Automatic annotation (TrEMBL):
Protein's recorded name: Rab11 family-interacting protein 1/2/5
Region described as Disordered: spans on this chain: 17-57
Superkingdom of the organism of origin: Archaea
Taxonomic lineage of the native organism: Archaea, Methanobacteriati, Methanobacteriota, Stenosarchaea group, Halobacteria
Compositionally biased tracts (Acidic residues): 19-57
Source species of the chain: Halorientalis regularis
């Protein structure tokens, strides 16, 4: 075996720790828009639709 026991990772222990962390609130607070506040929309791109080039020929 080419790996020593020092490099061994107990994935079961890491899984337990990750599941325990799921109960905690996220570190980043995601702000919801207030009622009446406009939502940020994605800008529309001025790219032609797929297949539109064939119709222009």
């Amino acid at each position: 075996m080419c790996h020593s026991m020092d490099e061994y990772i107990d994935w079961r222990e890491q899984l337990r720790e990750a599941e325990a962390d799921d109960d905690e609130p996220p570190a980043v607070d995601i702000a919801e828009p207030e009622i009446g506040e406009p939502e940020v929309e994605e800008p529309e791109l001025d790219e032609p639709e797929l297949g539109q080039a064939e119709l222009d020929d």
